[in-house]
């Protein structure tokens, strides 16, 4: 909105409200000449409504303040969010659900609120009220109302496809630190409930109130965080031993801190949004407050999937592609907000960008999340789990959320614009380097009071390409709707060995696209509770890290710093690593870390343990990936990167195709599984789910196995091929009871073809099967044999009944094994009628009669009673016709007529 529009919206009769018991406060819409020089002893900034205008509270006369360009008394509409004010402007007569933050929920306040509408919900000091919007200005004048917002519902961000654990170095952790797997850590997933998926079996517990419904989105998020690969290789998440609990995102406020503590829940994932909300709302305040109260809780939010949108409100309204975080809870300072990249590390256009409503850096990180940010947040949450486990193994307790944040932003790989930016924050998640920071103890904790400074000396040896230091602290919550969220302002700076002072990288927060896209500059940061200093090609020596309390409201402020010196001319393969399996004939992304200044290297592959090498090509090192289609082979492989004569070789990995496991039969005494042979295989490994884990059951040399029923712990099975000292990718884990195969039989179908009926039988296997006998039902429990077929190697058989009777007939197949066991199929039926032929059933009939016709025509069905009176007259114009009979019991005569002539007749008994 323009300044004029803003002034028009807020202008109104001056309203006094008691902010404390002593001062009678007036509210003004003020335009400062320089907001940074506002006299905060006399004024309280309560809301920033544009870049130029603030709402301020003062008990004094403002006329003597030379920094104020203009000031106008305003109404209490400043208590409402901009989104709610827009609704009031456009739809004043609308009935709207509104969330009110109130001073208390005592009986007198609730009684007063009920005068304005119906209270539909109440949580802590939040009251949900249905109100006609034109009543809103009067309601906001009431002293018990602190803040008002539109009642919103959360929605899951887009489901993410093709998540790649390699891009963020998550998969490399299993190879470098196999014991770090999420064991001993509990995570909450706030949205709808995930289901009891194979990859999550046995690791869920109840804590918070969960949603009543499950969703595939929640299951995918849980799998990305901590799937254990029971279902398939792609069901493996970041932390496969973590334990899960679910919480309903119908409640946008934080869950109970007491429950977090009671169940030792260290991290919660939030892959949902509500829409663009550029203000510091009730949820933002509450999340910041919760982390301050219990700083071992790390909240991870997706940034949103509306990155190409423009906000309609706030300082950045109308600017496309920025400031479009999807929810006020993502405006909190003490949480992590995560944007998305594609598999090459390029930021996704749809990934919501910062800055936050007050110019702060959001998101802090990006991670792989193609076409959205849900999966990106989940990968970061899974990584936080691993960091918490590593820290807990060292100290016996969970780390501070501020420590986690400092470690993650310091280890992130810079992408997008050079340095920090409003789209990708501090860079792309590097889970491996974050874990190394924890394990190597490259972090420090301290605290400062206002005006105090703490220094640390860190020695940087020669031969490094970069030195990084990142600061983070959990900041006290600001007031609701505050113009800026930061309360305690700490300053990070570094003194180099030669005496140079380096300030943190800061970004322009001025509301124009050109300014927001400017590169970061070294400058004192007064907005963020995260700060970072980096230095390229640092000289060897002692670096002094300064942390100063520029402004600490009261007491002291705890903080954390993380540091890293990146060795120059270093190269490391991160995918595939020693435990990884690549898909033959498919796209695989090879990944590495490199600090070489050289532009390219020569990439080769070996399939004989390094004896011979096959060139792949000249590769750009800074890309950190190569999209490679592996050959159609069942083998091990090694990679080699040659950089100016320096050779870097990967560990051995496996190239294979997953087998396709099928059920031959699933009989009461056992299950037959079979698969196609893998060329070069030395045998096969059969897996089954036992104790909630996919475990090896047995090995075989053949391509089939019969598993006796008494040996089956569950009905879930998978198979892999064994090579010479290696194992291929496992098949999908199947439920043998859900593959459409019974005891040999898949389907039996009966179809009318000309004047015959063809029986088609599909079976799952011919192992131990001798013959098929084709039978036709002749009575209630009697069958006539039509013929017998000898079984060969085929899985499909057919028999023709050349003499079908008129009407419905039923067939079955009798399968006989070599050892004399008999299996029957279910009945298959077919209706055989020629033109002007009919079948009427049941007869006798109770309430409903069915008439089958051999052709479609304009037939007429007439039913007469014993006295010759017409009792029913119906048209028959379908192959299957059904009529209700509301007639007295007795014997009736029916006729079927076509164009006035009787073509069929008989008797029908009504019982």
Largest sheet: 6 strands, parallel
- What radius of gyration results from the CA coordinates? 36 Å
What do we call the CATH topology of the largest domain?
Rossmann fold
Count of runs of 4 or more consecutive helical residues: 12
> What's the overall average pLDDT, rounded?
91
**How are strands sequenced across the largest beta sheet?**
12-11-13-15-16-17
Number of strands: 58
Tell me which CATH architecture of the largest domain applies here: 3-Layer(aba) Sandwich
Helical content band: 10-25%
Shape estimate? flat
Structure report:
The chain folds into seven domains: 3-79; 82-151, Alpha-Beta Plaits (2-Layer Sandwich); 165-443, Rossmann fold (3-Layer(aba) Sandwich); 571-655, Immunoglobulin-like, CATH 2.60.40.10; 659-727, Immunoglobulins (Immunoglobulin-like, Sandwich); 745-832, Sandwich (Immunoglobulin-like); 838-910, Immunoglobulin-like (Sandwich). A six-stranded parallel beta sheet has the order 12-11-13-15-16-17. The chain has twelve helices and 58 strands. The radius of gyration is 36 Å and the shape is flat. The protein starts with a helix and ends with a strand. The chain is mostly beta strands. The model is unreliable at 13-23 (pLDDT under 50).
């Amino acid at each position: 909105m323009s300044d004029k529009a803003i002034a028009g919206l807020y202008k109104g009769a001056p309203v006094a409200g008691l902010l404390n018991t002593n001062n009678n406060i007036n509210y003004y819409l003020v335009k400062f000449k320089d907001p940074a020089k506002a006299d905060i002893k006399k004024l309280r900034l309560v809301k920033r409504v544009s870049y130029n205008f603030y709402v301020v509270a003062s008990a004094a006369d403002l006329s003597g303040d030379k920094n104020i360009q203009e000031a106008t008394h305003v109404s209490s509409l400043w208590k409402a969010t901009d989104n709610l004010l827009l609704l009031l402007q456009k739809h004043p007569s609308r009935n709207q659900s509104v969330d009110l933050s109130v001073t208390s929920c005592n009986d007198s306040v609730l009684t007063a609120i009920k005068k304005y509408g119906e209270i539909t919900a109440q949580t802590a000091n939040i009251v949900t009220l249905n109100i006609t919007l034109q009543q809103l200005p009067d309601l906001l004048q009431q002293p018990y109302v602190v803040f008002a917002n539109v009642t919103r519902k959360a929605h899951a961000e887009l489901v993410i496809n093709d998540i790649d654990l390699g891009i963020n170095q998550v998969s490399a952790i299993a190879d470098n630190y196999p014991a770090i797997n999420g064991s001993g850590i509990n995570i909450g997933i706030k949205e709808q409930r995930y289901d009891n998926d194979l990859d999550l079996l046995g690791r869920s517990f109840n804590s918070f109130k969960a949603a009543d419904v499950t969703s595939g989105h929640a299951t995918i998020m849980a799998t990305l965080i901590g799937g254990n690969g029971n279902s398939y290789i792609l069901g493996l998440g970041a932390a496969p031993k973590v334990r899960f609990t679910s919480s309903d995102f119908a409640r946008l406020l934080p869950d109970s801190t007491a429950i977090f503590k009671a169940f030792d829940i260290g991290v919660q994932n939030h892959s949902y949004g509500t829409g663009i909300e550029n203000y510091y709302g009730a949820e933002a305040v509450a999340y910041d407050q919760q982390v301050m109260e219990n700083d071992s809780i790390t909240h991870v939010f997706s940034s949103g999937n509306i990155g190409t949108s423009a906000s309609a409100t706030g300082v950045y309204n109308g600017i496309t592609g920025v400031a479009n975080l999807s929810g006020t809870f993502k405006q909190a300072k003490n949480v992590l907000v995560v944007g998305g990249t594609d598999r090459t590390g390029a930021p996704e256009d749809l990934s919501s960008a910062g800055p936050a409503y007050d110019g702060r850096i959001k998101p802090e990180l990006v991670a792989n999340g193609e076409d959205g940010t849900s999966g990106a947040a989940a990968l970061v949450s899974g990584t936080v789990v691993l960091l918490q486990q590593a820290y807990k193994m060292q100290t016996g307790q969970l780390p501070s959320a501020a420590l986690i944040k400092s470690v993650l932003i310091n280890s992130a790989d810079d992408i997008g614009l050079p340095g920090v930016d409003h789209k990708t924050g501090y860079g792309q998640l590097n889970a491996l380097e974050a874990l190394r920071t924890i394990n190597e103890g490259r972090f420090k904790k301290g605290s400062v009071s206002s005006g105090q400074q703490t220094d640390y000396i860190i020695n940087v040896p020669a031969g490094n390409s970069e030195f990084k230091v990142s600061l983070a602290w959990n900041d006290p919550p600001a007031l609701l709707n505050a113009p800026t969220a930061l309360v305690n302002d700490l300053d990070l700076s570094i003194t180099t060995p030669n005496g140079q002072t380096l300030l943190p990288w800061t970004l322009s927060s001025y509301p124009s696209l050109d300014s927001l896209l400017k590169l970061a500059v070294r400058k004192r940061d007064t907005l963020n509770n995260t700060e970072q200093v980096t230095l390229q090609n640092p000289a060897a020596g002692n670096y002094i890290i300064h942390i100063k309390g520029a402004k600490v409201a009261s007491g002291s402020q705890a903080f954390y710093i993380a540091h890293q010196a990146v060795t120059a001319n270093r190269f490391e393969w991160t995918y595939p690593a020693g435990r990884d399996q690549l898909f033959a004939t498919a796209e695989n992304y090879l990944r590495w870390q490199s600090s070489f200044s050289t532009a390219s290297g020569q990439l080769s592959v070996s399939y004989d343990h390094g004896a011979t090498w096959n060139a792949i090509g000249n590769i750009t090192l800074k890309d950190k990936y190569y999209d490679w289609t592996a050959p159609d082979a069942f083998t091990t492989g090694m990679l080699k990167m040659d950089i100016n004569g320096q050779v870097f070789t990967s560990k051995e990995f496996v190239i294979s195709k997953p087998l396709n496991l099928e059920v031959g039969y699933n009989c009461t005494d056992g299950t037959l599984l079979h698969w196609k042979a893998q060329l070069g295989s030395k045998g096969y490994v059969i897996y089954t789910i036992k104790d909630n884990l996919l475990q090896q059951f047995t090995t075989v040399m053949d391509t089939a196995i019969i598993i006796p029923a008494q040996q089956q712990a569950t009905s879930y099975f998978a198979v892999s091929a064994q090579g010479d000292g290696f194992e291929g990718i496992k098949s999908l884990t199947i439920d043998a009871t859900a593959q459409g195969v019974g005891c040999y039989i898949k389907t039996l179908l009966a179809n009318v073809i000309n004047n015959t009926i063809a029986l088609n039988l599909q079976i799952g296997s011919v192992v131990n099967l001798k013959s098929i006998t084709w039978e036709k039902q002749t009575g209630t429990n009697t069958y006539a044999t039509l013929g017998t077929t000898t079984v060969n190697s085929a899985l499909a058989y057919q028999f023709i009944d050349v003499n079908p009777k008129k009407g419905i007939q039923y067939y079955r197949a009798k399968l006989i094994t070599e050892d004399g066991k008999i299996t029957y199929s279910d009945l298959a039926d077919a209706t055989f009628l020629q033109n002007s032929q009919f079948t009427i059933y049941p007869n006798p009939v109770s309430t409903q009669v069915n008439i089958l016709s051999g052709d479609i025509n304009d037939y007429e069905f007439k039913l007469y009673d014993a006295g010759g009176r017409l009792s029913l007259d119906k048209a028959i114009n379908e192959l299957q016709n059904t009529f209700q009979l509301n007639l007295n019991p007795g014997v009736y005569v029916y006729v079927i007529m076509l164009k006035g002539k009787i073509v069929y007749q008989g008797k029908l008994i009504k019982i």
